[in-house]
Design a protein that fits this description.
It is built from 17 helices and 14 strands. With 406 residues, it is an alpha/beta fold. The strands form 3 sheets. A 6-stranded mixed β-sheet has the order 1-2-10-7-8-9, sandwiched between helices. α3 packs across α8 and α8 packs across α10. The longest helix has 15 residues.
């Protein structure tokens, strides 16, 4: 077998993973290009079999195991995507698989993992706690542990993404790659630098779980006290020590993005490309605006698309509010017939769409002086919102912006 993380190993892995991967050809994005001043392509691993890139590393790793290692059964820990990759690959190899997932894992990821043939154990609040328990079970039951990221063989499988990018876009200038535990970024950055040292590779992690940033500052992996981010797939407390040296040597930069930026990126992706991409996969899209506008060729790796509908609904609602597509105004008006019609008319004349009305008669002891009307309105964006608020003010209603709850 080839030594891992060499060009020979990447080539071997690339041939192997073709047995289970779907082609995820680059998609040029005129809308994101216009936003950030670079030419942007998306690598849509959200369209991959099992809904994420993780099937690559899991399948390649499992293909290198001995018959004895397979016969003992496999175990892993995962917040969802690696879980499905291991379950799928293990079932194809005829091996038993056990997956320990955090108790906070979205139900859809749990059910899909079971659907691919794995036994699921829920344990801990974050990935790291699930991983510690999986290692205990591996020791107790003699199972073969397949690490989701801290393994050069797994990272080699993930790096096949970079090989496909340079085959399709040989003159790529920058590759943006999400970072959680570091396996994907390790494989992608190492292959890119071996292939062409001039390719710039930038790791992107959530601001609420910056494990690589902390490791680079310390000079070695450190365990964060906590992780708080909607990007659950990259909520990892400590970057892998096996992959860290590669990340340190091969990444040109590491940036963090906030949850609010991910929410906006989700809306952009749905509206511009009609694609569902999970929050961790949107890290690289949110990062586009932080790059210098140089008209360079930039590829954003969309690492996965496994997102449950409840989360999706919440992200869409928050995104619409953040972009002033939905807002709430409070107006005080005398409790007299016809006042509500006047408010509605002022909004309608500006093409605002009323979503919800709340009428509070008890805001003042003197109802004749004032009752409160809260109106939740759909608008086209900030300018349209200002026109609607201005029209209400011109009609004498003294509107104030109120918190929106849908």
């Amino acid at each position: 077998m080839a030594e891992m993380l060499t060009l020979e190993a990447f080539e071997e892995a690339s041939e192997k993973v073709k047995e289970v991967t779907q082609e995820t050809k680059l998609i040029e994005s005129p809308s994101f290009s216009a936003q950030c001043g670079n030419r942007v392509w998306l690598k849509p691993e959200n369209m991959q079999r099992t809904g994420a890139y993780k099937v690559r590393g899991a399948y390649y790793k499992i293909s290198t195991l001995s018959p004895d290692e397979l016969s003992r059964g496999l175990i892993t820990a995962s917040a969802g995507n690696h879980a499905q990759g291991v379950a799928y690959a293990a079932t194809r190899a005829g091996a038993r698989s056990v997956v320990v997932m955090p108790t906070t894992t979205p139900l859809i990821k749990v059910e899909r993992t079971k659907g691919y043939g794995a036994e699921v154990v829920l344990h801990g609040d974050v990935y790291d706690e699930a991983c510690d328990y999986a290692l205990e079970l591996a020791e107790r039951d003699g199972l073969t542990f397949v690490h989701p990221f801290n393994d050069p063989t797994v990272a080699t499988g993930q790096g096949t993404i970079a090989m496909e990018i340079v085959q399709e876009l040989p003159l790529v200038d920058t590759i943006l790659v999400p970072v959680g535990g570091g396996g994907l970024a390790c494989g992608v950055s190492t292959f890119a630098k071996l292939h062409n040292p001039k390719i710039r590779v930038v790791g992107v992690e959530p601001a609420g779980a910056p494990s690589l940033t902390a490791a680079l500052e310390a000079g070695h992996p450190v365990r964060l006290p906590s992780a708080s981010t909607i990007a659950d797939g990259t909520a990892v407390l400590e970057v892998g020590d096996e992959v860290f040296p590669y990340l340190r040597d091969n990444l040109d930069d590491v940036m963090t993005v906030s949850d609010d930026e991910l929410v906006v990126a989700f809306l952009d992706m749905v509206e511009s490309h009609k694609m569902i991409v999970e929050n961790s996969g949107l890290l690289t899209v949110a990062a586009l605006k932080h790059l210098p506008a140089e008209n360079g060729r930039v590829v954003s790796i969309l690492s996965g698309g496994n997102m449950d509908v409840i989360t999706m609904s919440s992200v869409v609602q928050h995104g619409l509010i953040m972009r002033d597509r939905i807002f709430t105004v409070s107006v005080l008006l005398p409790d007299r017939p016809g006042m509500l019609v006047r408010v509605a008319q002022a909004i309608a004349e500006q093409s605002g769409n009323v979503i919800k009305l709340e009428h509070n008669q008890f805001v003042s002891t003197n109802r004749n002086a004032a009752v409160e009307l809260r109106v939740t309105i759909e608008a086209f964006g900030p300018e349209h919102k200002e026109r609607i608020v201005g029209a209400l003010a011109a009609a004498g209603f003294s509107p104030t912006i109120a918190p929106t709850s849908l």
